[in-house]
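User: Predict the structure for this protein chain, please.
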Amino acid sequence: MSPSTSSPFPPGRRPQATQCADAVLMLRPSAFGWNAQTAVTNRFQVPPPPCNLQSRAIVEFDRLADALAVAGVEVHALADRAEPPCPDALFPNNWVSLHADGTAVLYPMLAPNRRLERRPELLAELAQRGGFRIERLLDLTHHELGGRFLEGTGSVVFDHVSREAYACLSPRSDAAVLHELCEEIDYEPVVFNATGPAGAPVYHTNVMLAIGARFVVVCADAVDAAQRQALLERLGAGGRHVETIDAAQMASFAGNLLELRSRAGGSVLAVSGRGFESLAPAARERLAACVETVVAMPVSTIESTGGGSVRCMLAEVFLPRATGLPASGAV
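Assistant: Here is the predicted structure, written as structure tokens:
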């Protein structure tokens, strides 16, 4: 499918494409815990032992936010509300994406209790604190009425330079919704199938695929054999180094990473300690050579109970700045 020519943002008016954001939205949880509604489709979740999950998650959250800020990333850590309880609120990338043309996209989500996380007032707070402009709201949540879902940048991994949107199909990632998104924001959809070790669809694309400025990380073995070679060729077509990981490394969240930029322009790789350590030393060296700083933080409570890792905790902010308004309120 070719990019839509009916986009409200014609090529001559698009901002210059950049793959990596220099600001992120994070949501400090108030009710982190086991979510039975998501466990059916998320094989990465592990039932937790009795412990204070909330306090442990807060420690992991704050350490990651602080480490990214020290690396020069602009971190906007906003607070989740106490009621209604949202056990997965610290994964805001599943309900919103924030684009360089000023578009904010709201996404349809499978679990009813995760839909409670969508809070437009948080976007207003982010815009005010960071001096951002939101010029268009694209609301795809009506697809929930038809049982069709697309869970943000969990379901979709964007190549912003090539204007491609990659998604592996699953109960949480519907091809029709992806195509509508791509028509609205003028990207080309790239759909494929991927399965985990148990034969179930990989629930989110971003646990098996990450695209940075100079590298790609992908669990190639998980991709349907008939689609694998074409996908690898497409991912590497722009000259990026393609680092393949295996199923065990995917299960350790080695693919759930994100490249960001510092405000000074340096490249920052955000990844969990567990995921980074699961890679062979040579693979760690290759990825580290593609960036200036590696932030590898342990988030084991969040990973095991929530079934998501560092990348899931970060909603990139590509939004344009309001003229003359400096960023404020960042961590």
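The longest strand covers residues 23-28.
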